[in-house]
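Replying to the earlier thread about multi-chain prediction with a worked example.

Input:
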Amino acid sequence: MSAAAQGPATDASATDAATPWWRRPAMRVWGGVAIAAVVLFGLAPALLSDFRLNLLAKFLCLAMVAVGIGLAWGRGGMLVLGQGVFFGIGGYLMAMHMKLSDAGPDGVPDFMLLYGDGIVPGWWEPFRNPVVTILAILVVPAGLAALLGLAVFRRRVRGAYFAILSQALAAAFAILLVGQQKVTGGTNGLNGFRSFFGFDLADPLNKRMLYFIAAGVLIVMVLVVRLLMASRYGELLVAVRDQENRVRFLGYDPANVKVVAYAVAACFAGIGGALFAPIVGIISPADVGVIPSIGFLVGVAIGGRATLLGPVLGSIAVSWAETGLSEQFPSFWTYFQGALFILVIAFLPQGFASLGGLWRRRRGATSEGTPPAPPTTTAAAVDDGGGGDDADAAVESSRTAGRHA
Amino acid sequence: MDALFSQLFAGLSLGSVLLLAALGLALTFGQMGVINMAHGEFIMAGAYTAFVLQLVIPDAGVSLLVALPVGFVVGGLLGLLLEVTLISRMYRRPLDTLLVTFGVALVLQQLARDIFGAPNVDVRAPAWLSGAVPFLGMNLPRTRLFILAIAILSVVVLSLVLKLTPLGRRIRATVQNRDLAETSGVSTRATDRLTFFVGSGIAGIAGVALTLLGSIGPTLGTNYIVDAFLVVVVGGIGQLKGAVIAAFSLGILQATFEYSTTASLAKVLVFVVIVAFLQVRPQGLVSVRTRSLA
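Result:
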């Protein structure tokens, strides 16, 4: 019994009379997208130097992973510790294509001549084709996640067990990359790309184009999540998170619901990795192992794991802070990151996006002097009051449901 | 035949290391359902304890023997501190505990880096552990045998404590049914604290033992923590039986795969085997019987 479960129809009827049009959830989403588009496409390129813009493009790639984590972890309750794997697969696939196209038709990438016997392995060959590469980036991470998800969720392995397995996958993947130096470049990873689908990467104009691609992809991802969450599927996902058995007793298979969210998150991470490689110019095991995989989570947690924009903003904020602080105080940053994990998760589990809702409820409670309303009215009130977006309502109503359960 | 035996020994040796790393984790996970990511850093703390003691006590043999109990106490106190300050506030939120303790792990790692420096340091092995013991035509390194002995001893002592002492009875009661134990007059809060002390203490011992195998650095714990988690997953939330069987099985499996392929491929294969195994027994090898649907 959550606001999300009541669906968009209730949103409209509940908000018609009381709320001005600019505070309605749908308007807030479109307004948010419009603002994001203006900032990302207009302000940022105009205000930032080419170097800073490239840095922002990198942050946007990391934010793509965060959007997926927000879906799987925030809405679906699956703690995904191993997103680095999917990020890495996307990045390496793109890097393989770029290395091959740099080497020219039938050419051999430079590092293979250096470490190996100078023969391109058979499974590299298809990635000479740009279409195959793009399809693989979309399909391979999602497919791997679907396989693992089916194996794990069908047997009702979940919670900490799933988290550990996803983490172990990341560890194994990073070790595999280091071990197979002849075909993966080992610890150094793949780097030194010269062109991206025929565009010269040294040209600042093309760098700028990459930035716009990243910004556009990120906005599309946020909209996809928004559409998913507004659909029946989104209701099921939140329901599975809150009461998996009840969903099962209603005749749905929670495993399928979870697999879809996990696969979508993996797909987003893969795309993020695929854009990360040309933008940053390197993809290596250091970007995909256990620590970076968990590192993806901190931005999501800080922003608000169960909200639409929280993961994006949190992730960008953390990346920005890390770049700024770790350059000057490398050791301080690690303490800071550790402290962020401890303080945010322990004391602000819904992230900064929940602060607004908390404040509103406190203000509402003191000014009206009424005890907390019963669940239905609370849900409606949350819809009326409006959070950062209607996902806030889902979080808050689920919290309310927990209190009354 | 020789190859088989040496594989078996390599597996047992790897298994004993895994067991030491995972034993405390299995204990705390089994009882409180929290996953402690900082467990690896307690291992690291134990290793650095051995390093510091060797600076104080020049005799390598004496310092090692002193380091084992001191490492236990250091690891245990760190664990106790973590339990009292953070974990006790948020049990029943196991997944969040995992992230909080990861934050603690980051801080401890950086602390070690700032105190001891980023480069690895070495602990000298005592003379009586150098060399190897000939056995059935093989040479078994004494250090590996010593670690195997420590692992076995830890399991024996821990299972005796669990079986015979009042503390063990309270721990078992809490694992089986926390609410009922509380109702029967067991202070589950006190039991949690003691369990965490013991579990983290074993991590400290593991750290001391690991100094015999190679140099130690701030990331020592991270290298073992994922494998230790896998042992817990495969072993299930039982008593110690599951962890022991799982650690040695995974050790032998890893050694066998390494023998036939490469070390990096072996990791992936072991992971695949674990996922396949969970299809058969999603709850792990040993699990406490429960009627709950969760």
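Residues 2-32 of chain B form the longest helix (31 residues).

Feel free to reuse this layout for your own posts.
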